Amino acid sequence: TSLLLLSHIPSPFPRLSLGYELHVAILNVVNYHVPQDRKRVILVGVPQGTRYTFPTRNHV
Questions:
Q1: What is the pLDDT averaged over residues 3-26?
Q2: Is 41 in a helix, a strand, or coil?
């Protein structure tokens, strides 16, 4: 079993000041209509000041 730490992933967003906020979640994709029972790191960049929430779980 491997452990993923976000500190191990270089993030250019804060350094470049591109005007985006980064939202990060670890989701099991089987809950989102994907035929795999695996956890994935999902990164979503949105313009600063934009509200973002990850979609709710949907079981197939």
A1: 68
A2: strand
d(Cα 56, Cα 58) in Å, to the nearest integer? 6
**What residue type is assigned to position 49 of the chain?**
G
Domain extents in the chain: 6-47
Least confident window among 1-10, 21-30, 51-60: 1-10
Question: Do 41 and 29 meet the contact criterion of CB atoms below 8 Å apart?
Answer: no
Residue with tokens 């509200």: 51
32 burial (CB, 10 Å; 0-12 / 13-18 / 19+) is: middle
Provide the residue count of the chain: 60
Vertex 26 angle, CA 40 and 6, to 5°:
100
- pTM here is 0.63
